[in-house]
Each structure stands twice: as C-alpha cells, then as structure tokens.
Design brief:
heterodimer, A: 338 residues, Alpha-Beta Plaits, five-stranded mixed beta sheet, two-stranded antiparallel ribbon, 12 helices, 16% strand, B: nine-stranded mixed beta sheet, binds iron/sulfur cluster
Chain lengths: 338, 227
C-alpha cells in the first residue's frame, strides 16, 4: 500500500473524441524506436472493439485472488502503423493520400460506429490509460519483480533494467495497458507523467484536454476534486471492478444526449443506451451512480445549486487539478485515512 | 501462485549414478564454429529434455515438441567448449533493429514488428561455487548455492547471468564467446565457458520461441557431470 495514491477522474459526458490527449502523450513519451504502436493513452469508441481489439473480452486480472492471464495481443490487434504515399500524392500528381499497405486494423478502427438501440445509434468515447492499480496484476505477474508501485504516489512503473521482456505483465493486465518494445526487449507503460507530477504539474493528457474532463489529484487528499468525486459524492467508478486490480482511474458514466421522444425523461426511465452495457463496463454500482447524478441534475434544473455538477464543469485548472509538489505531499491525508 | 511451483523441483543431491558428459581433449582453434571438424570426432551424448509446468493454473501444459538435446564437450588449455544441438522445426529469431522506418508524429522511427513473438534460446547452468557436495536447485539455484548461467538468445546474443533461486536471475554484464546457427531444422550452439574440473555439474535448457517459451517456461535437463 503506497502512502498516497494519485488518481484521475474522467467525465465521459464531456469527451469529444478529439484524441488531443492521445497525441499529447504520444509526442511526449512514445515517439521513440519500438514504440510506434503504443498509445499509453488511447480513446476508443464504445461500444466497439477497443485497443487492442477485444482487450475487454480476452481475460486478465484476478479471479478468486489468482491471476487469470489472457493470450498476448498481436501487433495487428493493436493496429497497424503505416506510412502514407505522400511522395506520390504531393510530388507525382497522385490523387489521394493512401496508406502504403492494406489497412486491416488501426487503434481507432471503428470510430463513431457504436451500436443501435431502438433503431437509433448510440456511442461514447472512452479514454483509457494505465489505471495505476492498487493491486496491479502486471506487478503480481512479473517473475523478475521488475514492476513496482511507488510509495509516494502509487504510480506503477517498470524498472527497465530488471525487465527481461517476458510479457507476463501484458498477459495479466486486464486493461492491456502495458506494451512490449520489441527493439529494446522491454515492457513499457504509462508513467502517469511522474516527472510532471513531482513538480506539482498535471499529466500531459489532462493538461491538453479541450473537453476539460480530466480531474487529477490525490485520492487521499480531502481537498482534491478526485477525492470529492470518488469518495464523497461517489459519482465516478473504475472500469471492470470485477477484474480485481482496484483501478485508480475513475469515470463519470455517460448519459448520452436524449433521443427523439424521450426529452424530460430520466436515463433510468428511458435509457439512451442499454444500461446493461454500462453495467458491463463499470459494474452494478453504475446504476446507483446514475441515480445520484440524476438527483443532482434535478436539483440544478429546479433552480438549486449542485456542488457535484459545478465541480464537473471543471472550468479552471485549479478546480480540476490538486497536485502538491512532492515535498509537500506529507501535508495530505495518506491512504490509511482516505 | 508462482512460488508454489518451487515445490515441484528439488535440490538434487550428488549421485554416483548421474550420467556424465564425455569430454574430448584438445579443442581446435575453431572450436567456436559449430561446423568445426573438432566436433565431428568429439563424443556426443543425447540428454532428455523435460518441460516446466505451466506458470498459471489457467494455462494448458505446454507440449513437448523437443525431446532431447545433444551435448559435446571439448577441453582447451584454459576453457571448455560446449556444443549443443537440438531439432526445432521453427526458427524463431528476430533480426533487430528492423530496417523499415515509419513516421511517429514528426519523427521517423523503427517500429516494433511484433508484440507476441519469442526467441529460440539455449543455456548452460553451472554451480557458481564448484566443489560443493550438494547441487544447487535446478530452479536457478538456492540462496546458499548460487548458479552461473551462460545464456544465448537467437535474437539478442550471449549473456552471463547469476542467480540464487527463482526470480533472482540477473545479468552480470559479462559476455562470453558463443555462436548459434540454424540449418536443416536444427539449431547448433557453441559456447566457450570457463574451465570446468572433471566431475563438474552442468545442466542445460532450451527455449522454443514458437511455444512462447521464455524465463521459466522452457525445456530443461537434470544435472549431469563432466567426465
Ligand atoms: S492498468 Fe494494467 S498495467 Fe496499469 S497498473 Fe493496472 S494492471 Fe498494471
Ligand atoms: S483530449 Fe479530452 S476530449 Fe479529447 S479525446 Fe482526450 S479526453 Fe476526450
């Protein structure tokens, strides 16, 4: 158990699917050799195949306290990284910029496809990163003890010296958020921008997010937005709680905009997407969360002030991020008290 | 769970019945070449390979696709040369780094071509402290009985490792002369090891990349001694 735990809350009602976070992360951390296919932060359309495809259906995590590893996803499962015929298009009179190989899968392959309910299309975006789990399956699976969880902030890191590239961690992570750099023969993953966090700055993905939907802070810091959303108002949940890793990235579940004909009706009365699907992603508790959020909505619609909805607007950086510099961490609560 | 596997193995006690590996004196200068004529005349012994049990209860036991490894020893003035040969229909070897470059944001980089392939490899394990009357555990030695491992990967080359039990294996940073070649469905590996006294224990391991072998998922022999 670390002394403190950094956490992120993402309000899925606000995600635009713009991939600014994805690119912010890619440019900062994964533009090196062997990292071409890695998106430590990715945004996928849900329902959909995800990245790597079918990651949510292949296994991983714990079952009755035992690791239940999946098979390793292939490079094609993550998606191709290809060149375009820019030469031809720009300088040789080509008509179209086209990928230079036949495209069979990409990280955002089924963008905006979604699914149908009652004849209408629905979908939402799910931004994903390593959950810096409290009980990381990746760490438990590593026979070399190369993966560690930092005492001071709970960030999960791979010791690049100790790692031998065995990829048990990849098989074990239920979120498939740990990658293999074949050129280096090492596992690599989201580092929660720890050099920025140590300076009291937020992660690149949250900093760049035009939707302002990411909240970052310490879960054990009672003055933080993440603490308030997860622990006090209890309107944010981790993905796939049944996988047993105790994730520290939380989501405010999406309502989706009203469909034709259901204006004024609550989501629970007349759902805009199958609630089963939200239960699949976030567990049964998502129904209670939706109920809580609807009560807040009602409060606001009746002219009252909802602290939760005000907080979720997240207008300013000061509202969204509460990140004490490393040397000031002693002043916040500590996991035991959270 | 992974720790409980340790029970399946044992610290083998020295046994007079332990088969020995014939060694031939006077290694030629080209002993590191697996095709050297020195190896044509050196006596060979075929050792049975065993499969480690699956690491996770949910994994099916791995098939035994390779049943033996042929071992030869040549003694030089200050080194021992080992030649290992085994049949493996799949050649799992990656040439790194890839030639192809691709754009990642504004940079040209070499991509990872695959995420799920593993390399064929081979290793010789010896006790790090020779002369003890109890052999180290086959599972990378014990706390009091460290082992030294000469490891050769078809992809990443040779490295010396040391260990004092499962999960403790680490690279010492030393390299050693070794060669690995594949022809006609067989791997042949030669390694130049430190000098080993007669009766020194040795054990061998083979990894089959196409079976996703790596780490403790491998083929192994029990301990044998040099003649
Ligand atoms: S999300 Fe996966 S990689 Fe990240 S800490 Fe959890 S188990 Fe490990
Ligand atoms: S930057 Fe923000 S709005 Fe854009 S995809 Fe990422 S999380 Fe969604």
């Amino acid at each position: 158990m670390p002394l403190h735990q950094i956490a992120m809350v993402l309000d899925l009602n606000k995600c635009l699917g713009c991939q600014t976070c994805t690119m912010a992360c890619k440019k900062l951390w994964t533009d090196g050799d062997g990292m071409d296919y890695m998106y430590w932060n990715n945004v996928e359309t849900r329902p959909g195949q995800g990245y790597p495809r079918n990651w949510d259906r292949i296994g991983g995590g714990f079952e009755n306290g035992m690791l239940r590893p999946s098979e390793l996803p292939s490079k094609l499962d993550y998606g191709q990284t290809f060149e375009y015929n820019y030469e031809e298009r720009l300088f040789q009179g080509g008509l179209q910029a086209m990928p230079q190989e036949e495209t069979r899968n990409t990280p955002n392959w089924d963008e905006d496809v979604g699914a149908l309910m009652a004849g209408e299309n629905y979908y939402f975006y799910l931004p994903r990163l390593c959950n810096h789990c409290t009980n990381p399956a990746c760490l438990a699976a590593c026979p070399r003890n190369a993966i560690y969880k930092r005492e001071e902030d709970g960030i999960v890191l791979v010791d690049q010296e100790r790692c031998e590239g065995y990829r048990y961690c990849m098989r074990a992570c239920p979120y498939k958020k740990i990658y293999y750099n074949e050129l280096l023969g090492k596992a690599q993953k989201c580092i929660f921008c720890y050099p920025r966090i140590e300076q009291g700055d937020t992660t690149a993905c949250s900093k760049q997010c035009p939707g302002r939907l990411r909240f970052v802070g310490f879960l054990d810091d009672e003055s933080s937005a993440v603490h308030s959303l997860v622990k006090v108002h209890r309107v944010a949940l981790g993905l796939f709680p049944e996988k047993g890793t105790d994730p520290n990235v939380f989501y405010v579940p999406p309502f989706n905009p009203p469909r034709r004909g259901n204006y004024g009706k609550s989501v629970l009365e007349d759902a805009r997407m199958p609630l089963d699907y939200l239960v699949y992603l976030f567990g049964q508790e998502v129904i209670d969360v939706i109920r809580r959020l609807e009560l807040e909505l009602e409060k606001a619609q009746n002219g009252g002030v909802s602290d939760v909805l005000q907080l979720l607007i997240g207008r300013d950086a000061e509202v969204r991020y509460q990140i004490p510099k490393r040397d000031q961490l002693v002043q916040i609560g500590g996991i035991g008290k959270a | 769970m992974k720790r409980s596997l340790a029970l399946l193995f044992f610290a083998a006690a020295l046994s007079a019945e332990m088969p020995s590996i014939p060694s031939t004196a006077a290694a030629p200068d080209d002993a590191l070449d697996p095709a050297s004529t020195g190896w044509k005349t050196a006596r060979a012994v075929s050792l049975a390979l065993h499969r480690t049990p699956p690491l996770y209860a949910t994994d099916a036991p791995a098939a035994r696709e390779i049943d033996s490894v042929q071992v030869q020893l040549l003694r030089g003035a200050s080194a021992v040369f080992v030649r290992l040969e085994w049949a493996d229909p799949t050649r799992d070897e990656v040439s790194l780094p890839g030639q192809e470059k691709t754009w990642v944001t504004e940079k040209l980089v070499t991509p990872s071509e695959a995420t799920d392939r593993f390399s064929d490899s081979v290793a010789v394990m010896i006790p790090a402290e020779p002369g003890a009357d109890v052999y180290p555990s086959l599972q990378m030695g014990d706390r009091d009985r460290p082992v030294r491992i000469y490891f050769v990967s078809a992809t990443r080359g040779a490295a010396v490792m040391e260990a004092t039990g499962r999960g403790t294996t680490h690279r010492t940073g030393e390299r050693f002369p070794a060669r690995l070649g594949y022809a006609a469905g067989k791997w042949a590996a030669t390694m130049q090891l430190q000098n080993l006294p007669a009766g020194a224990p040795l054990s061998f391991a083979v990894w089959n990349g196409s079976q996703q072998d790596r780490d403790g998922r491998k083929y192994f022999t029990v301990w044998y001694t040099t003649e």
